[in-house]
From TrEMBL:
<keyword id="KW-0221">Differentiation</keyword>
<dbReference type="InterPro" id="IPR001881">
    <property type="entry name" value="EGF-like_Ca-bd_dom"/>
</dbReference>
<dbReference type="InterPro" id="IPR000152">
    <property type="entry name" value="EGF-type_Asp/Asn_hydroxyl_site"/>
</dbReference>
<dbReference type="Pfam" id="PF07645">
    <property type="entry name" value="EGF_CA"/>
</dbReference>
<dbReference type="GO" id="GO:0007155">
    <property type="term" value="P:cell adhesion"/>
</dbReference>
<feature type="domain" description="EGF-like">
    <location>
        <begin position="172"/>
        <end position="210"/>
    </location>
</feature>
<feature type="domain" description="EGF-like">
    <location>
        <begin position="217"/>
        <end position="255"/>
    </location>
</feature>
<dbReference type="InterPro" id="IPR009030">
    <property type="entry name" value="Growth_fac_rcpt_cys_sf"/>
</dbReference>
<dbReference type="GO" id="GO:0005509">
    <property type="term" value="F:calcium ion binding"/>
</dbReference>
<keyword id="KW-0677">Repeat</keyword>
<feature type="signal peptide">
    <location>
        <begin position="1"/>
        <end position="23"/>
    </location>
</feature>
<keyword id="KW-0325">Glycoprotein</keyword>
<keyword id="KW-1015">Disulfide bond</keyword>
<dbReference type="InterPro" id="IPR049883">
    <property type="entry name" value="NOTCH1_EGF-like"/>
</dbReference>
<keyword id="KW-0964">Secreted</keyword>
<keyword id="KW-0272">Extracellular matrix</keyword>
<keyword id="KW-0245">EGF-like domain</keyword>
Length: 315
């Protein structure tokens, strides 16, 4: 009896272990080639939870709120591009507040980067440190100096700065106004002190591709951010989109209304079958008439006939 009980217990444990192993394989993530986000569900391979198959047939992670300056690497998980931070990578990273500081003396945060400056009497070095310079101190230069053939000349630490009228302090150059910026056609120049950055035009989004930033067209139709009517078709264009009313509707695409099918003059003129009608309310039209599939019987039934009241009987 005891031997029989022991055999039953061992068999039960074996079944539980086998079931657990099967359950583990049921939800286990696997690698199919070089693809990520592929899970095994029984005997088939599908995209894991939080991943969706794109138009190339590959599983890609889904981030509900998007990644403004980064890329989606998992379910609602963004990997930010250099110089940006935040859950959706929508915040500029203030490198000047990091520890250790990237600059020895003065640090100025810029959009997606930073710049270093030195105090009076020091010269900025390539690593962000500042070297003491007696000659610069005597010349009262704002940011540093150089000695050329025995003559001391003040310097500005950035190409976006130039010496002012006193030849000692540096003033900003507005690259956006002077046309000295190198922003491409799909970016807008934004001036900063000592520099500038290129902001994507409306309809474009900044992406980090092949080791550099570039503005990519936003497909408002695929993203569902368009404002087309429910009775219109969204057509993506470069930097924008267009809305076209569907067949059987008219309007500007943002507002579409059903086309009336027939018009008849009620003041005695003869109507034409090619005219449109506004007199018949939609509630009295059959769906096939509104859809444009007309027949003589449809038109006859769509227009309510006047019911004549018989004269009273004379007794």
């Amino acid at each position: 009896m005891q031997l029989f009980t022991l055999i039953c217990v061992l068999f039960l444990l074996l079944c539980i272990s086998s079931g657990s192993s099967e359950a583990y394989r049921h939800y286990r993530q696997v690698l199919s080639g070089n693809q990520q986000g592929v899970c095994r569900y029984g005997g088939r391979l599908e995209c894991c939870y939080g991943w969706k198959k794109n138009n190339k047939g590959q599983c890609e992670p889904q981030c509900e709120h998007g990644c403004k300056h980064g890329e989606c690497v998992g379910l609602n998980k963004c990997k930010c591009f250099p110089g940006y931070t935040g859950k959706t990578c929508n915040q500029d990273l203030n490198e000047c507040g990091l520890k250790p500081r990237p600059c020895e003396h003065r640090c100025m945060n810029t959009h997606g980067s930073y710049k270093c400056y030195c105090l009076n009497g020091y010269m900025l070095m390539p690593d962000g440190s500042c070297a003491n310079s007696r000659t610069c101190s005597l010349a009262h230069c704002q940011y540093g100096c150089e000695e050329v053939e025995g003559e001391i000349r003040c310097l500005c630490p950035s190409a976006g700065l130039q010496l002012g009228q006193d030849e000692r302090t540096c003033v900003d150059i507005d690259e956006c106004i002077t046309g000295k910026n190198l922003c491409p056609y799909n970016r807008q120049c934004v001036n900063t002190f000592g520099s500038y950055y290129c902001k994507c035009q409306d309809g474009y989004d900044l992406k980090y591709l092949n080791g550099k930033y570039d503005c990519q067209d936003v497909d408002e139709c695929a993203a569902g951010t368009h404002k087309c009517s429910h009775h219109a078709v969204c057509v993506n264009t470069r930097g924008s989109y267009k809305c076209r009313c569907k067949s059987g509707f008219r309007g500007n695409g943002f507002e579409c209304s059903a086309k009336p099918f027939y018009q008849r003059s009620w003041d005695g003129d003869k109507g034409s079958a090619d005219d449109f009608i506004n007199a018949i309310p939609d509630s009295q039209m059959r769906p096939e008439i509104l859809g444009g599939r007309l027949s003589n019987e449809d038109i006859k039934n769509a227009i309510p006939e006047t019911v004549a009241t018989p004269p009273p009987r004379i007794r």
